[in-house]
Amino acid sequence: xxxxxxxxxxxxxxxxxxxxxxxxxxxxxxxxxxxxxxxxxxxxxxxxxxxxxxxxxxxxxxxxxxxxxxxxxxxxxxxxxxxxxxxxxxxxxxxxxxxxxxxxxxxxxxxx
Length: 112
What we know:
71% of the residues lie in helices and 0% in strands. The protein is mainly alpha-helical. The chain has one domain (9-105). The longest helix is centred in the middle third of the chain and has 39 residues, at 39-77. It is elongated. The chain starts with 14 loop residues before the first helix and ends in a 7-residue tail after the last helix.
């Protein structure tokens, strides 16, 4: 049998490709660790997997916080909503994103 045991992981050309191949990364990390003499490469592969997990969690939190703002902009730009809805979405976003003391320091703008 020639190659392909890890779905040609070495050909992953960018982060998106690697992100979609985390199972192959896990298998490679396990295989490297099992060798007994490639622990450094196994550890770095594990660290890459941990970075992907951290990024997924952090990005997921931010996406949930931003989705109403993105929707308001998209719907305003397509003439489905008014600019007032953008201001409402931003106010909600900002109230979720910062502490009360920091919120008080923000300049207050009224919707146009």
